[in-house]
Write a structure and sequence with these properties.
With about 450 residues, the chain is α/β, with parallel strands linked by helices. It has 14 helices and 19 strands.
Length: about 450
């Protein structure tokens, strides 16, 4: 029996790819997937190559796996994902511990590659970057009660800071019927929450149907009556239509949570980033969302330290965050990626300036988050249970996505992973809430 350990790095979109690889390998009677890296005969590392920190994490993981080839059971290392696709010409040369590299469009061939490396072959399986997802793809889910569902691959935006079009190719949307079929399949497996993801969710269908078609897709997904929660991630603001807003407002199973990556508020920096829309239009959209969807929680991601970002631009961003008061916010320090247009721009900022601006923004957001969480004390929230640790359960409300947002701590009595429960918030901090169970379970 060949023991295989699969390490998944990077974003939720990468996690879906890893789950499909694990599903394919699980079907083989001669293979067993193990969680212990040291016990594995073959280590598969699904890498991220988006920004410098992610690349460094991927390379460090490969090096650690290589040490197990020298002093452990490991016979072969297979590197898949974004780093493999992006640096296909150098990985095998620079890291001799690697036995095979597999790209973002060919990971369904993982079983064949595994057989080849166990025969002593060096393999490079890189082709067109876009993978054609189908509901029939087997998946071994990381969690059993929620699942990410990738509705499209690739991106056409070509933002100047982003290497995704080079790594993942142009936008490739899945047919609505196939997405609905996968939702049906996942719900039948016990999944309570479906999280729709893509590089640009609100552009879904542009390549297939000639216009953005996310609202029509959502209506099809909601025909799966057993689905409890539907969450929407990576919604570029320019394609958030009135139809989509009305759906969120009137469909109870769509979480009152919208992830809107805006990256910056300064019109000058947004132009340099090749992001559509101006500051005033962002404010108008946010105002419309909060007016038409009472209680909606908004998440965004920002980039500080973009080339040429001066003090005026940064002050603009600070004032924007203070004015909007996003419920959830992530801040990234600009990473200069060699195959992007922004890499060639003048006036790159120092690491120290990026760090200082990152910290200033996060200090402001910490206060905003604490204030908003304090307002939840005494409220009753529907919570999905993610983990049970000893006598404590960890859950999330409809306003929180897995791993990146608030956690709610509850007594674990009579609870199990995947339960949807009613919870009274008793205490609140910057990013954590303490709750008490109510006997009433939602059905």
């Amino acid at each position: 029996m060949i023991k295989v350990n699969l390490i998944s790095l990077g974003c939720s979109k990468n996690q879906v790819d890893s789950e499909i690889m694990a599903g394919l390998l699980r079907e083989r009677p001669d293979l067993r997937i193990v969680n212990n890296t040291a016990a594995a005969d073959v280590i598969i590392i699904n890498t991220c190559g988006f920004i410098q920190d992610a690349k460094e994490e991927s390379i460090e993981t490969i090096i650690r796996a290589g040490q197990l080839k020298e002093a452990g059971n490991c016979q072969a290392i297979i590197v898949t994902g974004c780093l493999a696709q992006r640096y296909k010409n150098v990985l095998l040369q620079e890291l001799p511990e690697i036995n095979a590299i597999v790209g973002t469009g060919t990971f369904d061939q993982i079983g064949q590659v595994l057989d080849q490396v166990l025969k002593g072959q060096k393999v490079s399986r890189i082709a067109k970057p876009t993978f054609a997802y189908q509901a029939s793809n087997p998946r071994l889910l990381t969690a059993t009660h929620y699942a990410y569902l990738k509705i499209s691959e690739g991106c056409n935006n070509n933002c100047t800071y982003c290497s995704i079009p080079q790594i993942r190719g142009p936008q490739y949307s899945r047919e609505m019927a196939d997405v609905k079929a996968e939702v049906t399949k996942l719900v039948a497996m016990g999944v309570q929450e479906i999280i729709l993801i893509a590089q640009d969710l609100t552009s879904y269908g542009l390549d297939l149907y000639g216009q953005p078609s996310l609202p029509a897709l959502i209506k099809e997904v909601l025909k799966v009556k057993e689905l409890k929660w539907l969450r929407l991630m990576y919604n570029y603001p320019e394609n958030i239509s009135d139809q989509l807003i009305d759906l969120i407002a009137h469909e109870d199973r769509i979480c009152n949570y919208l992830d809107i990556p805006i990256q910056h508020s300064s019109d000058r920096i947004r132009h340099l980033m090749k992001r559509r829309g101006k500051r005033v239009e962002l404010l108008q959209l946010i105002s419309k969302l909060r007016k038409r969807v009472p209680g909606i929680n908004l998440r965004t991601s920002l980039i500080v330290g973009f080339p040429g970002e001066d003090e005026h631009d940064f002050m603009d961003l600070l004032s924007f965050v203070k004015e909007v008061e996003f419920e959830r916010l992530g801040v990234f320090k600009y990473s200069a990626e060699e195959d992007t247009a922004a890499f060639k721009l003048p006036h790159h900022l120092s690491a120290a300036v990026k760090e200082e601006r990152h910290n200033q923004l996060m200090e402001i957001q910490q206060k905003i988050s604490y204030h908003k969480n304090q307002q939840l004390i005494g409220q009753v929230l529907e919570v999905i249970i993610d983990q049970i640790n000893d006598n404590m359960a960890l859950g999330r409300s409809r306003y929180d996505a897995p791993e990146i947002d608030n956690q709610i701590y509850l007594p674990a009595k009579a609870l199990k992973t995947g339960d949807l429960v009613q919870c009274i918030i008793k205490e609140a901090y910057e990013y954590d809430l303490i709750g008490a169970n109510r006997d009433e379970f939602t059905k």
